[in-house]
Design goal:
single chain; alpha+beta; 4-stranded antiparallel sheet; 3-stranded mixed sheet; 17 helices; 9 strands
């Protein structure tokens, strides 16, 4: 159908191999990570080295999913890695985080290393199952990697040529920091920020105390001290100074999508447990699954958001698999929305279990503690909102509104029952708000930019779900009716957000802007509410059936 975005991409990994990987994770959880083991790992808060080494060992070698075929890996694309990452997050977020850190630590080598460096280190990671760490964050420079204080001083030989670098500084909150066998470390060289590869145990690389954390307690997190740490010149990634920020930005669009899958996986884990509990728990003569106060409050809204998050993750992963570049904003949107959705579901899962939800043995309180970090690491939700609003504002202005106009045009031709045409009207209104807010200098306020970021995030996520609803067929985890019902519900939520945020900007943020207020009031808010409860009932019925 004309206007429907392409929803499939050529898989980069054999589907049978992917199925085997998922079966392996299923077996691993069943045999090595039953609930009692996960709760004990969480209680003692120690890195489960024996388990992780087993997962990296030759019998399972799960790390190969992240490694290209030319270096001995399985050659998975972003689509397959997203599926595996979600499944690992459902199993246990602490274990999943340890594996994400291996991927994250390797990525600067993958995107910025010379062919010799890639062959040496990525092959070694593949063959030896190395634990890797990514050393970027500093005590006074969390998400702002430009505020780098770790220094890399050139070390010259007798001829005055560079033979290496001496690193001094501090790193903070480094996942796998105390157990890694290989590190990629960002430091300020004379010609700019640069990544260096460091072998574990090198003199001058000093891991600190394992952090006692609120959640993901079984993952290793610690500071690193670099004291006159000598790095040979051949371990400067890319062989040229000053490429570190460029390399980090290439990684972000990909790794933030992986964190988004963790939010999805953690949220789905909490949702599935809440659904199961709703079928078993009887109150006042009927199961909780039969009560709208439970299903329509604690299940359906979250299930809809998670379905939207999944659609957007799938879309961005497909784009990455076509080798499309410059998807940092999409990575930020995916991470911001999916991790907040997962955190919200995990929070209400405790409510769904009542008093039992507050007790450790029912696991949902652990899931909540684990999921919270996802809104913080790899860039907080607030950092993501900054990125989204700033770069989407730039795209809107440079295209004179064309960026969102084209998006709305593609939605207008979708069937009505996907919610696409209604969303198109809302995005058109949002486009006006963005341009008028900037023209009236309201965008100097960070709060206004955050309001715009939320509108943009919900709109783009809803767009992905509407397109998915238009082509979704039988034979998958959810029925076409469910996906369309979820799409209509999420479009209503998006329209509401755009409507109220627009009025806040147009009337409540200093200068009143009649064009913004007019655009908001021209949205079909009342019309799209028709069938709202029917769609809630439809989604609830399939969830608990």
């Amino acid at each position: 159908m004309e206007g429907i975005e392409k929803m499939t991409a050529q898989p980069k990994m054999d589907p049978e191999v992917l199925s085997m990987v998922l079966d392996t994770i299923e077996k691993l959880e069943r045999e090595k990570l039953p609930l009692e083991t996960k709760l004990e790992m969480d209680r003692i808060g120690e890195f489960p080295e024996k388990l992780i080494r087993f997962m990296l060992g030759p019998d399972i070698a799960l790390h190969l999913i992240f490694i290209p075929e030319e270096f001995g890996g399985l050659g998975a694309g972003a689509t397959e890695i997203a599926i595996v990452s979600e499944r690992m997050a459902k199993m246990d977020l602490a274990v999943a985080t340890s594996f994400l850190a291996i991927c994250l630590g390797m990525d600067p080598i993958r995107v910025g290393g010379t062919p010799v460096q890639q062959e040496k280190y990525i092959t070694k990671i593949a063959e030896e199952g190395l634990v890797v760490a990514y050393g970027v964050t500093e005590p006074e420079a969390g998400s702002n990697v430009q505020a780098l204080k770790t220094k890399a001083e050139r070390v010259l030989d007798d001829k005055g040529e560079i033979k290496g670098y001496r690193l001094n500084g501090q790193k903070q909150f480094i996942t796998n920091g105390g157990v890694a066998q290989l590190y990629t470390v960002l430091a300020e060289a004379p010609d700019g920020p640069s990544f260096f590869v460091v072998e574990g145990g090198t003199k001058g690389l000093v891991p600190g105390k394992h952090e006692d954390k609120h959640g993901i307690r079984a993952s290793d997190t610690c500071p690193l001290t670099l004291e006159d740490l000598f790095i040979p010149v051949e371990d400067l990634l890319g062989g040229v100074e000053g490429q570190g920020l460029k390399q980090a930005n290439k990684v972000f669009g990909y790794t933030r999508l992986m964190v988004a899958t963790f939010g999805l996986g953690g949220g789905v884990a909490a949702l599935e447990r809440s659904i199961k509990y709703s079928r078993e728990r009887v109150q006042f003569g009927t199961a909780l699954a039969e009560k709208q106060g439970y299903t329509h409050r604690l299940l359906v809204p979250h299930a809809v958001q998670l379905e939207a998050a999944r659609a957007y993750i799938e879309e961005v992963a497909r784009r990455l698999d076509t080798d499309e570049e410059d998807l940092q904003v999409e990575g930020s949107i995916a991470k911001y929305f999916a991790t907040e959705a997962g955190d919200s579901m995990a929070n209400d899962a405790i409510q769904a279990f009542g008093g039992y939800g507050y007790i450790r043995e029912y696991e949902v309180e652990k899931i909540k503690r684990d999921v919270k970090i996802l809104t913080i690491y790899e860039g907080t939700s607030e950092i993501q909102r900054n990125i989204i609003s700033m770069f989407r504002m730039r795209s809107s202005v440079r295209s004179k509104g064309g960026f969102y106009t084209e998006m709305a045009d593609r939605l207008k031709v979708l069937p009505e029952d996907t919610g696409g045409p209604a969303l198109a009207d809302a995005i058109s209104a949002m486009n006006t708000v963005i341009l008028k807010a900037r023209a009236n200098k309201l965008t100097k306020s960070q709060h206004v930019m955050f309001l715009l970021a939320d509108m943009m995030t919900w709109a783009e996520t809803a767009k992905a779900l509407c397109h998915k609803a238009a082509i979704h067929r039988e034979g998958q985890a959810r029925t076409p009716a469910f996906v369309k019902g979820a799409a209509r519900l999420f479009v209503r939520e998006t329209v509401e957000k755009i409507y109220f945020n627009s009025l806040k900007i147009g009337q409540g943020c200093g200068v009143a802007v009649p064009e913004i207020v007019e655009a908001a009031k021209g949205m079909p808010v009342d019309a799209i509410l028709e069938g709202y409860l029917q769609d809630m009932d439809l989604v609830a019925a399939e969830l608990v059936e």
